[in-house]
Write a structure and sequence with these properties.
single chain, mainly alpha, 13 helices
């Protein structure tokens, strides 16, 4: 096997060959992805590169350290969930600088690690916007993917949403809403619990909390 430096260089070369000035230009204005180091590669192309690589923990760590947005997406796709440590999750999360890398890492990787549920609790009260978003993006992903988790875990997740719904920062508020919707779709009992939680938010003295609750109930009535 080639050295780690060669494998990193090869992966970056593959990304650069698929980069597009148009994709790069549209990342911020069109998708709200603001990051200082990006090449402009479509997600489908990053997935192709990751599929060709396969699972590779060592390469995932090295790609993350390059700071390139696309390299970090590929890192999340090739990383071995069973090899991810709690410290690695803290380190990666602390470096999130946009919603897309946060949600992508949660959806592709974090929710499959053995530390996922503990991290929801750990990060939910963080003062850092993207760390807190990660807590609820992770809860959203767990609701989608963890079919074996007991309802009590998601009930606890709803309590965290209620507790943190006073936070009016945009990327936090959106993650709270995503998590509540996903929990409600998990099963009918949790849907009822989510509706009750949303009603309590509507009756809250907190404007951001009322917004989260009202949005959920409005979307629920349309479904």
């Amino acid at each position: 096997m080639a050295s780690i430096d060669v494998r990193v260089a090869d992966t970056l070369d593959a990304l650069r060959r698929r980069s597009s000035a148009k994709v790069l230009e549209e990342m911020g204005p069109r998708y709200g992805i603001h990051t200082p180091r990006a090449l402009g590669v479509q997600m489908a192309q990053m997935k192709q590169i990751a599929k060709q690589i396969g699972t590779d923990h060592e390469l995932a760590l090295a790609l993350w350290d390059t700071d390139w947005y696309e390299a970090r997406v590929v890192a999340s796709l090739i990383e071995d969930p069973s090899a991810v440590t709690s410290e690695q999750m803290d380190s990666w999360t602390a470096s999130f600088d946009n919603w897309a890398i946060c949600d992508t890492v949660c959806f592709n990787l974090f929710d499959r690690t053995p530390h996922a549920w503990a991290k929801v609790d750990q990060w939910a009260a963080s003062p850092a916007e993207y760390v807190k978003r990660t807590a609820f993006a992770l809860l959203w992903c767990l609701a989608l993917h963890d079919r074996d988790a007991p309802d009590s875990r998601f009930e606890h997740g709803l309590s965290l949403i209620e507790r943190e719904a006073h936070d009016d920062r945009n990327f936090v508020t959106k993650s709270l809403s995503m998590a509540m919707r996903a929990i409600a779709h998990h099963n009918s009992a949790l849907a009822a619990s989510a509706a009750q939680a949303a009603q309590r938010l509507v009756e809250s003295e907190s404007r951001p909390a009322r917004t989260v609750g009202t949005k959920y109930l409005r979307e629920r009535s349309r479904s």
